[in-house]
Amino acid sequence: MPREAFGPDHPFLPHKQLLSFEEITRTARQFVQLGVTKLRLTGGEPLLRKGLESLIEQLAELRTPDGRAVDLTLTTNGAILARKAHALKQAGLRRVTVSLDALDNDLFQRMSDADWHVKDVLAGIDAAQRAGLGPIKVNMVVQRGVNDQQIVPMARHFRGSGIELRFIEFMDVGTTNGWSMTHVLPSADVLARIAAEFPLRARQATVPGVTAQEWDYEDGQGSIGLISSVTQAFCGDCTRMRLSTDGKLYTCLFASQGTDLRELLRSGADDAAISQMIQQVWQQRTDRYSQLRGQGVDTNPSADTPSGKIIPIVAAPARRIEMSYIGG
Q: E-strand spans in 170-326?
């Protein structure tokens, strides 16, 4: 969450505008009944939500129509994970994903606008492993000319640890992260740098809709994942819907607006009506922003555009929802 956007004077939403844990759980129950098997808690930083363990306990009790527990996960920046890991596991959380863009502390703090040390994040990862919150994944967003020199050191650090390091292409989410195509390092280049140090072999995908292409180290020391959402868009295989903390449904990470579910939840509607709205929103989705951008058009032209001008075939929304609002 950028400090300049969420500083001490930021007008945060009044508590009554946020979904209660019971409302979140009720909504999640409808998703699970419709066939969803994975639930992820994400956002700016979910561990800052007071009483989060109570929500996890409620979600962990959900069962699919055939009686299976859901795959309940959480994505975190890891800053306070060390002191939360045990309680999260006890509440019913299954695993965590940790965001970490560099091992070099100065670079890490600049990129994250963080006032905590990278060693705090690493301590959180260790604590999560000890608590049994695995398999743990670590997400590194790679920016050309910013932290790409950290690719091999990150791979070397997590190799053989039982943790999967995933490299994510820098995406043009929201409108505040200063995105430019010149800052994108294609996953193919990331793969080449790692393979030059540690031979890799591709793993065959077994589950439809997965976002990461996985590669195993040939010597058996673990694996890496590559998320190529810019150079190899996967809109057609997307199976994700996001519920914001104020009760809006988003069918795309690049959406400009969501569908208000909170009003329906608080109007006395029954579960059937909630389920019907979820199905309607999903069935009517037309999102394919990444695919259109991938046709060779920079939908967010900047001074970095080599030609100086472009002929757009798709107009990007003037404002898109920020990732710090709905999570990755």
A: 200-202, 213-217, 223-227, 242-243, 248-250, 259-260
Is residue 246 within 8 Å of 13, Cβ to Cβ? yes
Walk me through the domains of the chain, giving residue ranges and CATH numbers.
15-326 (3.20.20.70)
Which residues, 6+ apart, have CB-to-CB distance to 86 below 8 Å? 127, 131
Q: CA neighbours within 13 Å on the CB side: how many for 66?
A: 3
- In order along its 328 residues, the chain shows pLDDT tens digits of 555 555 666 666 788 999 999 999 999 999 999 999 999 999 889 999 999 999 999 999 999 999 999 999 999 999 999 999 999 999 999 999 999 999 999 999 999 988 999 999 999 999 999 999 999 999 999 999 999 999 999 999 999 999 999 999 997 765 555 567 788 999 999 999 999 999 999 998 766 656 789 999 999 999 999 998 877 766 667 788 999 999 999 988 777 789 999 999 999 999 999 999 999 999 998 766 565 665 555 444 443 434 333 334 344 455 656 656 666 5
Q: pTM, whole model, 2 decimals?
A: 0.84
CA distance 201 to 219: 10
Q: How many alpha carbons fall within 13 Å on the CB side of residue 31?
A: 24
